[in-house]
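Justification of computing resources. Each target in the renewal requires a structure prediction run like the one illustrated here; the chain below, 93 residues long, is used simply to show the kind of job we budget for.
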Amino acid sequence: MSRNFSDFNFKEQPKQEKQSFSGPSEADLRSVYQEYSSLDPNALQARLASEIAQRKQDGTLDVEMLRSSVESIRAFLPYETYLNLKGLIENLK
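Resulting structure tokens:
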């Protein structure tokens, strides 16, 4: 026997409150952008290596989170940049 949508009792779901974004502020992001945009590629590479070493030492390096982040922005990246980021992340293990 087939059923119609009218055969079901729908209950209205309670509205969920919007979760606030607890990340860095726009001013913080601008500040970090300014700091890193003035560095040459070698200085950026050295800074990255230092940050990775510190996170590995602290046990806070989350390779899966990095992979997920890169995948989430993949559509906005040039293909070569995407491949470079994937390669960098794979070398972090």
